[in-house]
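tool_call: predict_structure(chain=1)
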Amino acid sequence: MHFEIPFYGHENIRSLHPKTIEITTEPNLTLNGDCIIGVKASCGCNDIPDRLKSLLQNSKSEISCTIIVKELKFKIKGKGNEKLTLLNPHDIVIRKSSFVCPRTLATNCDVASDSLPRQMVKLLRNPDTSGVFAIDVT
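tool_result:
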């Protein structure tokens, strides 16, 4: 199943966190949010379609997320997890660890926000830049 979440950049995007990547529906971002790569997202975990939630909540599911900004693409591979609640209305977080909270979309991912290409981060520092967070589950 494929699902896309549009989001926007923000001047405070740093993308330095070594364990997570996050997008949020919130319009503002402080410098402390160093895992956040997008704001004003169209949905948080809570608004993901139920069919997709069921797939994400299966530990056998392979999750592929793609961050698309202009002509640049960044792929993340992770796993589903039966402990996912997917209830947070504002945030979507993918994690390298197996930690789960209502904001978690995928666990055991292969990269985090510190791996995002710096060219993409530079583009995302412009609030007018839009991006897409694409989720594919098999």
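agent: The helical segments are 50-56, 118-124. Proceeding to next step.
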